[in-house]
Amino acid sequence: MTDLTFLPDRTALEAVGLGVKYRRRGWALRDCAFRLPAGRVCALVGPNGAGKSTLLALAAGLRRPDAGRLRVFGGEPADPGVRPRVAYVGQDKPLYPSFTVADTFRMGHELNPGRWDQGVAERLVRAGDIPLDARVGTLSGGQRTRVALALALGKRPGLLLLDEPMSDLDPLVRHEMMAALMAEAAERATTVVLASHVLTELEGACDYLLMVADGRVRLAGEVEDLLSAHRLVMGRYEGEGVPREFATHQVVEARARGRQFTALLRTDGPVAGDWQVSEPSLEEMVLAHLRAPAAPALIAPSAEPRPGFRREVEAA
Ligand SMILES: Nc1ncnc2c1ncn2[C@@H]1O[C@H](COP(=O)(O)OP(=O)(O)OP(=O)(O)O)[C@@H](O)[C@H]1O
């Protein structure tokens, strides 16, 4: 059955008080709380070392939190009932070099009885002109990425976790792979979390955003809601500091270049004065927050963990 709608009442990922501590580094994630409704395609962004891979590894059940809790479809990520519903593709793709592509898919079939979709997997590698009898060890980095993504999609996951898996693809293939992934995800209302630094690529593909910086959640929610909470303001300004008209708003970031003044505001009503005001693009909003790590976090209502889960974690 084709289901193009997202499932707002169902929760794919939910975290409260989530923390991960590495022995030498200290807290890589700290007190993270958020919710990702099922069926969304979520961009996971943040500077290098922000904690994105750590968060994805928790969701994939590859490590356990040191504080708080993360639930995947209401269960523990490592639960036997949850794990088969989750596919994870990281930066390094652990495929067997001596296997052919067909062997790799056979393994996918054996590991995912009753779920495996050979058609989806084959479609993805055929689109890249990769023969099924090619040995994985003889493929280029980009071709191996394609096989790894095909293996993940063949599993027909409810949650697909992608940790910058496409960084070694050329721009054309990257574009084509994103389109193929999104089409497959939409077909089954798969929840996707895609960590990437390529903000322009996320713009059209993602409807949800999770931004982490320094181990904490900075922005979370529907892209549409987050964008409409912000305004990009430009104009000529020769005064000192931040213009008075901005006093009723929250200034995320303000920059002056000569007399040209640009600011990203979290607005409370219209912006007074002679300013050019527009809604920012996803890239403009994220870049401003990356440059302003001290800006207060914004968690949209749909991204707030449910009170019941919060109480449960706090009582534990
Ligand atoms: N195995 C580890 N042991 C110690 N510290 C680690 C380990 N893995 C990650 N870290 C540290 O935890 C922090 C978060 O790392 P993580 O890889 O989750 O960030 P990231 O947002 O994915 O970064 P990038 O965008 O560079 O991939 C970093 O400071 C990193 O050095």
Give short descriptive properties of this protein:
single chain, 7-stranded mixed sheet, 30% strand, globular, ABC_transporter-like_CS
Summarize the structure.
It comes from Streptomyces mashuensis. The chain is 29% helix and 30% strand.
List the helices and strands and how they pair.
Layout: E1 7-22, E2 26-38, E3 41-45, H1 52-59, E4 67-72, E5 86-89, H2 101-111, H3 118-127, H4 141-154, E6 159-163, H5 171-188, E7 191-195, H6 199-205, E8 208-213, E9 216-222, H7 223-228, E10 230-236, E11 250-257, E12 260-266, E13 276-278, H8 282-291, E14 298-299, H9 307-315
Parallel strand pairs: 3-7, 3-8, 5-6, 6-7, 9-14
Antiparallel strand pairs: 1-2, 1-4, 8-9, 10-12, 10-13, 11-12
Helix pairs in contact: 3-4
The structure holds adenosine-5'-triphosphate.
Keywords: ATP-binding, Nucleotide-binding, Transport
GO molecular function, one term: ATP hydrolysis activity
Pfam family, one: ABC_tran
For the largest sheet, list the strands in their spatial order: 5-6-7-3-8-9-14
The percentage of residues in β strands lies in: 25-35%
Rg, rounded, reads 21 Å
The major sheet is characterized as:
7 strands, mixed
Cofactors, ions, other ligands: adenosine-5'-triphosphate
Percent in helix: 25-40%
Instruction: List low-confidence stretches.
Output: 1-6
Number of strands: 14
The SSE order reads EEEHEEHHHEHEHEEHEEEEHEH
Based on secondary structure, the structural category is alpha/beta
Total helical segments? 9
Distance between the termini: 40 Å
What is the molecular shape?
Answer: globular
Instruction: Report the mean per-residue pLDDT as an integer.
Output: 91
GO molecular function: ATP binding; ATP hydrolysis activity
InterPro entries: AAA+_ATPase, ABC_transporter-like_ATP-bd, ABC_transporter-like_CS, ABC_Transporter_VariousFunc, P-loop_NTPase
Organism: Streptomyces mashuensis
Keywords: ATP-binding, Nucleotide-binding, Transport
